[in-house]
Amino acid sequence: MQAARTFAPLVRRTGDDDPPVTIPRAPAREAAERELSDPAYHQDDPSLLQRALDRFWEWVDDLFSAASGATPGGGLGLLVIVIAVLALVAALWWRLGTPHRAPASSPALFDDRPRTAAEHRAAAEAHAAQAHWNQAVQERMRAIVRSLEERALLDPRPGRTADEAAAEASVPLPTHATELRAAAQSFDAITYGARKATEPTYTRLTTLDKALTQTKPSLSTTPQGAPR
């Protein structure tokens, strides 16, 4: 064990013929500490940020050294693993697109003043004429749901989501249950999932809208939430 550091008494001479003056140990230590605290002795010391960066890079170096020691093939094996992980992340990014935070719950289907099914259809056609397929799909889905409400197949309920509307409409219109769910999924994907709608997507919703207006509801079941 290293011996504790001690400070010898400070001896100071006052003159050639005068006896030396001995300063006690504690005052000598305090005098040395005051002297060493002079900023002139620390002007070349690294800054706090530099010291923190040095510690960080030392930690990174130790981490990679430990990882390369535990990886078959050493540093080369670790490099191969890192490249493989980066390639996997790039592939997922390319396949799934930029990630978006999913809403805690799907927002309401209608977000403005009440409009009729005819008004939603007219808005959808106007957007489609300009190839604004996202807005066209949204308005066509709203036209479908509003039309079902106007026919009393759905109760006019504020805050209903597209998924809820599709599930409820599938009860009186079971033959179109699959198309209704697909339409709701398309609406959610472009409205809340940052997906791009296409003309075929809009055409499918338009075809569904026309088919629903010509389909008689099943009388053996009562739609969820509809008046009895």
How would you sum up this structure, described in words?
The structure is a single chain. This protein has 228 residues and is mainly α. The protein has helices spanning 25-36, 48-70, 74-96, 117-129, 133-150, 162-169, 177-192, 199-213, and strands spanning 10-12, 21-23. Strands 1-2 form a two-stranded antiparallel ribbon. β1 (10-12) and β2 (21-23) form a beta hairpin. α5 crosses α6, α5 runs parallel beside α8 and α6 (162-169) packs antiparallel against α7 (177-192). It is elongated, with a radius of gyration of 38 Å. Mean pLDDT is 76; it is low at 1-7 and 222-228.
**In sequence order, what are the helices and strands, one letter per element?**
EEHHHHHHHH
* Share of residues in helices: 55-70%
Number of helices: 8
Broad structural category:
mainly alpha
Kindly, what is the distance between the CA atoms of the first and last residues, rounded to a whole number of angstroms?
92 Å
The overall average pLDDT, rounded, is 76
Beta-strand content bin: under 5%
Output the radius of gyration. Answer: 38 Å
The neighbouring-strand order within the major sheet is 1-2
Number of strands: 2
* Low-pLDDT segments, ≥5 res: 1-7, 222-228
Q: Give a short account of the largest sheet.
A: 2 strands, antiparallel
**Shape, per Cα inertia axes:** elongated
